[in-house]
Amino acid sequence: MNSKQIRQKYLEFFEKKGHKIIPSSSLIPENDPTTLFTGSWMQPMVPYLLWEKHPLWTRICDSQKSFRSWDIDDIGDNRHTTFFEMLGNWSLWDYFKEEQIPWMFEFLTKELKLNPENIYVSVYRWNEKLGISKDTGAADLWKEQFKSVWIDAKDVDFAERDWMQGGRIFYYNEKENWWSRAWIPESMPVWEPGGPDSEMFWDFGADLKLHENSKWKNEPCNPSCDCGRFLEIGNNVFMQFKRTESWFEELKNKNIDFGWWLERLAVAVSNNPDVFMWDLFDWIRWKIEELSWKKYGEDEKETKAFRVIMDHLRAATFLIWDWALPSNKDQGYFTRRLIRRAIRFARDLWINWWLSAEVAKEVIKEYKEHYKNLEEKREMIISEIEAEEKQFLKTLENWLKEFDKLVKWFEIAFERTWKKVDIIAWPKAFRLYDTYGFPIEITEELAEEKGLKVDKDWFKKAFEKHKNLSRKWAEQKFKWWLADESEATTALHTATHLLLAGLKKYLWNEVTQAGANITAQRLRFDFTYPEKVSKEILDQVEAYVNEALEKGCTVTIKEMQKDEARKDESITWAFWEKYPDMIKVYTIEADDGTIYSREICGWPHVETTKVMWKFKIKKEEASSRGVRRIKAVLITD
Fold first, then answer.
1. CB-based contacts of 528, cutoff 8 Å, min separation 6
2. Phi-psi sector, 95: left (phi>0), alpha (psi -120 to 50), beta
3. Residue 106 and residue 248: Cα distance in Å, rounded?
4. Where are the alpha helices (DSSP H) in 330-425?
5. Which of 97, 290, 376, 400, CA to CA, is 20 to 30 A from 578?
6. % of the chain residues with pLDDT over 70
């Protein structure tokens, strides 16, 4: 069974259970400043988990493309990827764990025909401080499922022990078995939804050869161990709590929020722990073998290079498709970093010429059947990747000049003192990494050629400090968001619709939205345009928005079929492919019949622009190649 069959089988399975299939959302979250990327199947669903009725149904499922940036530097093992597909199903105020757990067991053992002897699960332990009890209900449901196939599933409390103890169901604390976008309950901002979860693991077996080189090979093992024996393949989230000012309270309407990793399901079906031997990587892997004259899996260092290139260029292809174009900030920074890191690892395969575009073509070829719009943007994707590779190779020349200056400094120091200094201090090495984007490995390689070494221990400390600062920045960013129906946030979101309509009217009708980031204090709106927008145009756009506000326009909602809406040229849309078959069209119309905006959307709006203040554009700037950014606010005078 290949990955396409697994994906299709999953969607059909839940369609038979009364679920509507919806398309994947963009990798760039819409109107959510808590995070740069859609890193889970939950993010696009937050409004529907809390307050918004989904336009389709209370039962939905999809294959959601996802990207997680925090593991970029760790990619290279056989299981982690930055980009992945998450097969998800949701119950929105409908069924709960009593239905979900039996369905999961049915899908694994009957649809995929996996051996239940290799399946292990975990459930939530408890938190007395938060008043959240032990999830014995989920454990009992799992016991019933295993009993149906003649397996006596023992449950084990893993608070103080770290070995199997003959268990099949394991109680873990928040670190392992709680899900919200803040990871643990105490870090959740007000109104953020979350809840205990129940994860499923595939056991590759205690005698797996992978353990021979593992640093955990002599350690006690359990499903949460990182040794390689167990692989988490899916997670049932029982979304039943929300954080409030006073602490936690149960949601009036409980939800199921579930996700499988398609890549990991595939390796469980094949019982091969290497996700890069999965069929959707085949053409990508073969292309790299063709370019390098190397064979995947024959050399440890080269195998890591293969994996980094495959992962990074697959991820970059999808990020560019969703308008995260290479740049020095926000989402584009990670796209740039992925491409450059892939090129750096190509050196380990002796590929010193054009690589990225050739691999991206294979990615598009492999995924275009499922993601129809990927082929439509093929030219743009290839063009952006080629331009970034060309720019990086040019930067490489500048970096080499900087490195030559550094080497020259050592030569001069030796001539003056006759003392041999052969250690490159970490500040100089880190500057080459931080300023020019070159991994420490390249610096080490070239240093070795010149008889020099890098103070790697100090570099690691500097790198960890750099990562910790980035994490703190991300945590602070998380605290901004008001995941509620506050009027300030809703009003600024409504203003983005008027802003886009004004840009299409006065700048260029082909302008499309490339991203949005809204807090209660300001909006940030990205749109496609190749050059700086003049102040004259910005003034006209600003006046257009304010005219709509002054007239006190009414905001109405109409549900309609997506195909019907697409035929109506008066309706604006962005990221067309992410919307379900039934969509909502928001119209902002004055009493005199003037329509200022008609746009497809899935987020809350004000009912009338009378509640909105004066609109003010504060700044217009470049976001990335071919994308501009406007920052604006609502002010009282």
1. 323, 510, 511, 512, 514, 626, 627, 628
2. beta
3. 33
4. 330-346, 356-367, 373-376, 378-417
5. 97
6. 79
Half-sphere exposure of 505 (CA within 13 A, CB side): 19
Q: What is the pLDDT of residues 25-63, one digit of tens each?
A: 888 876 565 567 776 656 556 667 666 676 667 898 989
Nearest Cα neighbor of 606 from 504, 494, 499 is: 494
Give me the helix-helix angle, 487-506 and 535-550, nearest 10°: 130
Q: 59-67 and 20-21: which strand pairing?
A: parallel
Distance between CA atoms of residues 300 and 266, nearest Å = 23
Cα dist. 267→61, 263, 276, 436 in Å? Answer: 22, 7, 9, 37
Q: What is the pLDDT of residues 413-467, one digit of tens each?
A: 544 444 444 555 545 566 666 655 566 666 776 677 677 776 666 666 666 666 5
**Token match 């023992």: residue?**
154
Q: Is 110 left (phi over 0), alpha (psi -120 to 50) or beta?
A: alpha
Rg of the Cα trace of the chain? 26
What is the arithmetic mean of pLDDT over 97-113? 97
Q: How far apart are CA 480 and CA 317, in angstroms?
A: 30
Superfamily of domain 487-635: Threonyl-trna Synthetase; Chain A, domain 2 (3.30.980.10)
Contacts of 352 (CB under 8 A, 6+ apart): 346
Tokens matching residue 453:
């070494």
Among residues 226, 148, 185, 52, the alpha carbon closest in space to that of 586 is found at 52
89 bridge partner residues: 61, 258
pLDDT in tens, 4-20: 999 999 999 999 999 99
Q: Which two tokens stand for residue 256?
A: 């199921």
Q: Which helix (H) or strand (E) holds 170?
A: strand 169-172
Is the whole model's pTM more than 0.85, yes or no?
no
Closest CA to 210 of 199, 223, 233, 226: 226
Q: By C-alpha distance, which of 384, 383, 339, 332 is closest to 623?
A: 332
Residue 545's identity, in one-letter code, is V
Triad 552, 555, 559: Cα angle to 5°: 170
∠ CA(356), CA(40), CA(185), 5° rounding? 140
Rounded distance between C-alpha atoms, residue 165 and residue 222, angstroms: 9
**Residues facing 63 on adjacent strands:** 87
Closest Cα to residue 537, out of 505, 496, 489? Answer: 505
- Say if residues 41 and 66 touch (Cβ distance below 8 Å): yes
What backbone phi and psi angles, to 5 degrees, belong to 197? Answer: -135, 170
Torsion sign over Cα 475, 479, 483, 487: negative
Domain ranges of the chain: 3-277, 282-402, 487-635
**Cβ 262 vs Cβ 225: under 8 Å:** no
- Distances, alpha carbon 543 to alpha carbons 504, 538, 547, 616, in Å: 14, 9, 6, 9
Domains 3-277 and 487-635 share a fold: no
CATH 2.40.70.10 given to domain 3-277:
no
> What is the DSSP pairing of strand 230-243 with strand 178-179?
unpaired
